[in-house]
Amino acid sequence: MDSGSGLEDPPSDQEECRTQLGLFRKLGFSPQQVQAARLKLGLGADTNTLLGELVLAAGGPEDKALAATGMPVLVPRGESPSRNNTPPVLALGVDETSEDDDALRPIVIDGSNVAMSHGNKEVFSCLGIRLAVNFFLDRGHTDITVFVPSWRKEQPRPDVPITGDIPPGP
């Protein structure tokens, strides 16, 4: 007996706009950005299309390239050949007068966490730290600091061995 104008009607356009606005606000977009995207795409644009437009409009050239390539995951595992007895601390810096100071943020890496994660929580893998540093160097970062707690600089213990000393940075 339902004539099609009852309970199965889709939500009104105004209701859908409010729902979309709430979603996009939770994702960090301003109401002005949402309105600009709606005007560009038309009021009938679906949520995914609007979200795509918001992401494109909000991101700069670096963000667009990052979205296209994605963030690679550090997957290589294993031991690095021991080269010398330098402690697993690495600090790379650049002078303050660089032209790209505001283009990339300084990077601080928790070396202990990275090394233990790379060593599957069984060994302190210095190779994991090197991979993390190289990851950011490959992306143009020059201000990279790795910190390791002082107790990690001691001789390895049987319960937490250290594999692959880190060679001095470039």
Layout of SSEs?
Layout: H1 13-26, H2 31-41, H3 47-58, H4 61-69, E1 90-92, E2 107-110, H5 111-118, E3 124-125, H6 126-138, E4 144-147, E5 162-163
Parallel strand pairs: 2-4, 3-5
Antiparallel strand pairs: 1-4
Helix pairs in contact: 2-3, 5-6
User: Helix/strand-derived class?
Assistant: mainly alpha
Number of continuous helical runs: 6
CATH topology of the largest domain: Rossmann fold
Sheet with the most strands, sense and barrel status: 3 strands, mixed
Low-confidence runs (pLDDT<50, min 5 residues)? 4-9, 61-98
> If you average the pLDDT, what whole number results?
68
Keywords: Endonuclease, Hydrolase, Magnesium, Metal-binding, Nuclease, Zinc, Zinc-finger
Cofactor: Mg(2+)
InterPro entries: Rege-1_UBA-like, RNase_Zc3h12_NYN, ZC3H12/N4BP1_RNase_Reg
GO biological process, one term: 3'-UTR-mediated mRNA destabilization
